[in-house]
Amino acid sequence: MASIDAMLDASREVGPLLCCITHRVLVIPIGSGTADRWQAPHSACSSGPAFQCLTSGYQPLCRARFWLSVPEPTAAAVTERACLHESLSQTRARMRQVCGTRGLEVCHA
């Protein structure tokens, strides 16, 4: 969500987001032809019209999913893949910097 917030703050076009509470992921529709070129270590990309959660190991069924619509005027049909990739990379880099700070504790609940 931090990457999506950054994109919205920069007035980048963001499409609808499918939130899966079961797997704690966002499924973000992007332009076709991206899956073979994505290769980003911080996310997964699959081709096809099925909106599925990509997790490793045992996969329970998605029981709690809902669509979020981005507010106008920044709403788009799909999220632009290059902007999403850049935003994810920048967010990941910031998180790594923070995690490298001495004395920092992070709790995941």
Percent of residues in helices comes to 10-25%
- Overall spatial form: globular
Number of domains: 1
Largest sheet: 3 strands, antiparallel
Low-confidence stretches: none
Q: H/E series, N to C?
A: HEEEH
Query: Numbering strands along the chain, what is their spatial order in the largest sheet?
Result: 2-1-3
- Would you count the extended β strands for me? 3
- Quaternary class: single chain
Q: How large a portion of the residues is in β-strands, by DSSP E?
A: 5-15%
Number of helices: 2
Structural class: alpha+beta
Radius of gyration: 15 Å
Ends apart, CA distance between termini: 17 Å
Integer average pLDDT: 78
Summarize the SSE layout with pairings.
Elements: H1 2-9, E1 17-20, E2 25-27, E3 65-68, H2 81-99
Antiparallel strand pairs: 1-2, 1-3
Helix pairs in contact: 1-2
Provide an overview of this structure.
- With 109 residues, the protein is of the alpha+beta class.
- It has one domain.
- The protein contains 2 helices and 3 strands.
- A 3-stranded antiparallel sheet has the order 2-1-3, with no helix packed on it.
- Strand 1 (17-20) and strand 2 (25-27) form a beta hairpin.
- Helix 1 packs across helix 2 (81-99).
- It starts with a helix and ends in a 10-residue tail after the last helix.
